[in-house]
């Protein structure tokens, strides 16, 4: 079952450094997947090029559409771990958790422990199948260094309904971000497609061949050289707020990837998923949750106010 993303990976080749086999190209483009793992994907016929399953010796060309429908399950069980989770709501269908900055949402190749999923599996013995064996219960994700609210599905039907609501852009997601520079506009809309950055494969960028991405923002507070903003997602692309705010010249403060100054503390980036609203998959009642800013985030604001 896939969520709002049709494929685990979907990428249009816009440029290539040299003629390259598909297994080598994908492992370079997506460093989290080793060449051995990519070859397993190919054997499972889960790597699609221009609508057809690919062979390992296929040579990549500009314009190729590369899609991976699933990542093969590595021979390793996800171990439940007793982690300190802040669960703000739970019933038989759904759970809402307030994730701290620094915690990865789900296991991935090379990172199988200490994730939110490990903690969830310790807390409860039933989660939805999810979109991948490493992502049980995970309907949507936030970055490792982003704090805040996530909804988790306990069964496949709840997952399907919540994922469809996300796809229909009904789910309410509001973020608070501290960004560099002073934004003079009171409100703004950033409508710029986002795709993979070919030159730095761990990054995303605004790209003509990217997927549609829309972020709305409003100014909450201005400082001498920074601005506190509320961001509302209309779409859910990887690193969307971080990429969009950097694109307009106001990167999230502490962002280790998109801010030239990088992170200046152990906290990470000052981006917080503050509001989450959705329709309960069974009762059909609208539910909304609010998460206060983390202590480190508040202390950062106090510093700016003093200055």
What features would you describe in this structure?
The protein has helices at 22-29, 35-43, 116-123, 156-167, 240-247, 295-306, and strands at 9-12, 47-49, 52-53, 65-68, 86-90, 94-99, 147-153, 172-180, 187-191, 194-196, 204-206, 214-222, 226-233, 271-279, 286-290. It has 307 residues and is α+β, with helices and mostly antiparallel strands. Among the domains are: 9-68, Structural Genomics Hypothetical 15.5 Kd Protein In mrcA-pckA Intergenic Region, Chain A, CATH 3.10.290; 174-271 and 300-306, Pseudouridine synthase (2-Layer Sandwich), CATH 3.30.2350. The strands form three sheets. Strands 5, 6, 7, 8, 9, 12, 13, 14 and 15 form a nine-stranded mixed beta sheet that branches. The chain has a four-stranded antiparallel beta sheet with strand order 1-4-2-3. A two-stranded antiparallel ribbon has the order 10-11. Helix 1 (22-29) crosses helix 2 (35-43). The model is unreliable at 1-6 (pLDDT under 50).
Keywords:
307 residues, alpha+beta, Pseudouridine synthase, 6 helices, 15 strands, 27% strand, globular
Q: What is the C-alpha radius of gyration, as a whole number of Å?
A: 20 Å
Fold-level CATH name of the domain at 174-271 and 300-306:
Pseudouridine synthase
What are the segments in which pLDDT stays under 50 over at least 5 consecutive residues? 1-6
Number of helices: 6
The end-to-end span amounts to 50 Å
The top-level CATH class of the domain at 174-271 and 300-306 is: Alpha Beta
As a percent range, the share of strand residues is: 25-35%
**Main sheet specs:** 9 strands, mixed
Query: What structural class is derived from the secondary structure elements?
Result: alpha+beta
What level of helicity do the residues show? 10-25%
CATH superfamily of the domain at 174-271 and 300-306: Pseudouridine synthase
Order of helices and strands: EHHEEEEEHEHEEEEEEHEEH
CATH architecture classification name of the domain at 174-271 and 300-306: 2-Layer Sandwich
**Global outline:** globular
């Amino acid at each position: 079952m896939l969520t709002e993303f049709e494929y685990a990976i979907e990428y249009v080749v816009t440029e290539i450094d040299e003629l390259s086999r598909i297994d080598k190209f994908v492992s370079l483009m997506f460093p989290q997947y080793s060449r051995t793992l990519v070859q397993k994907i190919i054997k499972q016929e889960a790597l699609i090029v221009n609508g057809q399953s690919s062979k390992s010796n296929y040579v990549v060309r500009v314009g190729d559409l590369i899609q991976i429908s699933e990542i093969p399950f590595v021979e390793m069980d996800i171990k439940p771990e007793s982690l300190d989770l802040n669960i703000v709501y739970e019933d038989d269908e759904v759970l809402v958790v307030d994730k701290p900055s620094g915690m990865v949402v789900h296991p991935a190749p090379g990172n199988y422990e200490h994730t939110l999923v490990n903690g969830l599996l310790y807390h409860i013995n039933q989660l939805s199948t999810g979109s991948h064996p490493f992502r049980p219960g995970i309907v949507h994700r936030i970055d490792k260094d982003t704090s805040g609210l996530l909804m988790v599905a306990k069964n496949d039907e709840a997952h399907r309904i919540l994922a469809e609501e996300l796809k229909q852009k009904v789910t309410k997601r509001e973020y608070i971000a501290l960004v560099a520079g002073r934004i003079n506009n009171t409100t703004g809309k950033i409508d710029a497609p986002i795709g993979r950055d070919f030159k730095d494969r761990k990054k995303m960028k605004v790209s003509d061949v990217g997927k549609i991405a829309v972020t709305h923002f409003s100014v909450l507070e201005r400082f001498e050289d920074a601005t506190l903003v509320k961001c509302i997602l209309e779409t859910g692309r990887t690193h969307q707020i971080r990429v969009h705010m950097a694109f307009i010249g106001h990167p999230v403060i502490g962002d280790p990837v998109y801010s030239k100054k990088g992170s200046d503390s152990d906290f990470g980036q000052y981006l917080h998923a503050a509001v989450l609203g959705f329709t309960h998959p069974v009762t059909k009642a609208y539910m909304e949750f609010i998460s206060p800013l983390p202590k480190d985030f508040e202390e950062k604001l106090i510093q700016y106010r003093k200055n």
